[in-house]
Amino acid sequence: MKKIINYLLLFLGVAFFTSCLKDTQVISPEGTHNVVEFGNVSNILSGANNPYRLYVAAFPVSPLDTLVVPVNFAGANHASKDITVKIEVDNSVVDSLNVRQYVDDDGNPDSDRFLQPLDPALYTVPASVVIKKGSLGSELLIPIKIDQIDFDASYAIGLTITDASGEIISGNFNKIVVNVTPKNDYDGVYEYKMDGWFATTRTVPDAELETTGAHTVRGNLFYYYSNTIDYQIDPSTNQVTVIAISGGYPITNYPESKWDPTTKSMHVVYDVLGAIWLKISPMLSLDS
């Protein structure tokens, strides 16, 4: 089955795109020396002012799957020796991220969005990985019992690099949080079609919507800008709500926004900056 979302641009404010650099792009400020750091597990979900990076890793439901965490020797040079990188579970990073991400400037917590440490009985973190001589990185492989994770809360693993065989450890990217979750029903690869005032007709055959919660998914806004957009689907009514757009712009949702569970398609209508400017209409084709 090919799932199709048709994007019709009705209005687009030029000011909306003044901050359209890649949200997932990470530039290390460590200087010219190589540093040991965690790489990107997925798209970065934490805010720009959050010192801790947050990722979501969503898996098909199965008894066991593997979370792959890149561990990089970042810089201009390849490793001149084998580098043993020691890594520990550190769920204090989860607590710190919750405060920075989900507590407002007045100290009011959005407790429903807090991440909870994943039950340690459900995963195993190796004590170390080795970045081989002549290479630029390695991978930390974490087996996880996905079928024992539910959607009662958002569960996460906090990780910290504690030692790197005498090499410099990044002061920015040595701690991360990974929200581990089963994939929801809306996660998948869509065919994305767009036409309208701002651009010529465009089709992207491999546009992904990725799980960010039990009934929420995140995608790219236009697939040639980097702005992200988050959708929430009410499973009892199939109502679709746009809950966030990168940049924090005000959103007004409309009742005709729906998810069709039969065709696996969406029709979404909403306002940004006071004008209906994006309409997603369901168009479905089936592959035999």
UniProtKB/TrEMBL annotation:
Protein name: DUF1735 domain-containing protein
Classification via Pfam families: BT_3987-like_N, DUF7015
Keywords: Signal
Domain BT-3987-like N-terminal: 65-167
Keyword Signal: yes
Signal peptide start-end: 1-22
Highest taxon in the source lineage: Bacteria
Residue ranges constituting the DUF7015 domain according to the UniProt record: 188-271
Lineage of producing organism: Bacteria, Pseudomonadati, Bacteroidota, Chitinophagia, Chitinophagales
